Amino acid sequence: MARPDLRPGVAILLIVGVVSALVYTAAVPLFERATVAMERRQARAAQLAMARAAAAQREELERRVSFLQHRVDEGALFNHGASADMVQGSVQGTIRAAAQSGGLAIRALDSRTETIGGTHYRLTTHVSASGGFEAINAALAQLEAARPLLLPRDVRIKAATTGPSDGPPVLSVDLDIDAYADLVTP
Length: 186
What we know:
Elements: H1 2-71, H2 74-77, E1 78-81, H3 84-102, E2 105-117, E3 120-131, H4 133-145, E4 151-159, E5 171-183
Parallel strand pairs: 1-5
Antiparallel strand pairs: 2-3, 3-5, 4-5
Helix pairs in contact: 3-4
């Protein structure tokens, strides 16, 4: 007689077990999908935050570019002329004047021209000269003050192999000087 009382309890346990197994089987993929969706949402939120930061930074960068454009005087940077040879001659004249006003003796002056886009050129002049320490400083100061700008890129100073034994030491200086040209088409 105890058996009939057990059957409804076993049946209920069996039904609860089957329902639990079905719920568990259905719930695991749902939880996995929800986890993947949350991870995707978090990744998109991080991308959105980075995009907002980049947009905020863009405004700052545009403001900096505008400030620098106002600050940079293209007239002070670019030599203007009809041809690269004409501008190169002008640059060499300025370099000669700066060196000679400082008291340097120019031994060699070589130039090369490189196109950097459109009508813009980089004019590189290699100068070999000799003179005293004060002459080198004076010539570098003259080059620095020149307008349009002359930009010494590489300066090598060494003791000259020959020079007066009783006077100030003679130094040898090698300079690579860049100048920029914006050629005007006639």
